[in-house]
Specification:
Layout lengths: L1 H7 L10 H98 L6 H15 L3 E6 L1 H4 L4 H15 L4 E4 L9 E6 L5 E5 H7 L1 H13 L2
Parallel strand pairs: 1-2
Antiparallel strand pairs: 1-3, 3-4
Helix pairs in contact: 2-7, 3-5
Length: 226
């Protein structure tokens, strides 16, 4: 009965009466189990390696994608900076050209008027400046001051004519007299109320500055056709 139980328990326990045969069967079983374990470990290691390779590839793709996006963003940023710099430089040059032309026009205008003083051609200009100042000041009586050259042209007849024009244009009466103050250094007139509280500066430089915006607009339209 003992021998039959051994036969039922597996081939490694078959009693052949030869211990060496029994040891061989045991070693074969161990070797087979070891081979299977090695195969399992190898298979798992290969799968783990494949998984890591796949992860590494995806990570590399992600890094490359991010690098491309960053590079494109940097390139676009640089492009915008360049365009902005060009626009700023263009605007700066445009403004400089406008200012240069504006300054040149003002200088020519003043030079032109200076050459007209002491001539009959200047009298209607001087009259118009007095009338404009009289309307702007809007007082019953005012004193006129001007440059020394212009004051010599402001006669009683000129002042009466100016008073009439102010009356015609506004319906108000304004009495004009020559100021007792020293003559002005620059061309043009300044009208001051008799109580010295208000005045109207209508000198050439001041008149041109008041029209500066229109002059600049005219220059821009002529230079750039807009």
């Amino acid at each position: 009965m003992a021998r039959k139980d051994k036969e039922d328990s597996g081939p490694e326990y078959i009693d052949t009466g030869d211990n060496s045969s029994r040891m061989v069967s045991l070693e074969s079983a161990v070797a087979q189990e070891a081979g299977e374990e090695a195969h399992r470990i190898s298979s798992e290691a290969r799968k783990e390696a494949e998984r890591k390779n796949l992860y590494a590839e995806k990570q590399a793709e992600s890094i490359l994608k991010e690098a491309r996006e960053n590079a494109e963003a940097q390139a676009e940023k640089m492009r915008q900076q360049v365009l902005s710099g060009v626009a700023i430089e263009k605007k700066r040059r445009t403004m400089k050209i406008q200012e240069d032309v504006h300054r040149e026009i003002l200088q020519r205008a003043v030079s032109r008027i200076q050459t007209m003083v002491d001539t009959d051609e200047y009298r209607p200009i001087l009259l118009a400046h007095i009338v404009e100042a009289g309307i702007g000041l809007d007082v019953p009586a005012a004193r006129i001051n001007a440059s020394e050259r212009e004051r010599s042209m402001i006669s009683g007849d000129l002042m009466r004519e100016a008073e009439k024009r102010v009356k015609t244009l506004t319906g108000r009466s304004t009495r004009l007299t020559i100021s007792e103050e020293p003559p002005l250094k620059k061309l043009g007139v300044v009208l001051t109320s008799e109580d010295n509280r208000t005045s109207y500066n209508n000198q050439i430089d001041t008149r041109l500055m008041r029209k500066s915006t229109k002059i600049r607009q005219f220059i821009y339209e002529r230079l750039f056709g807009e």
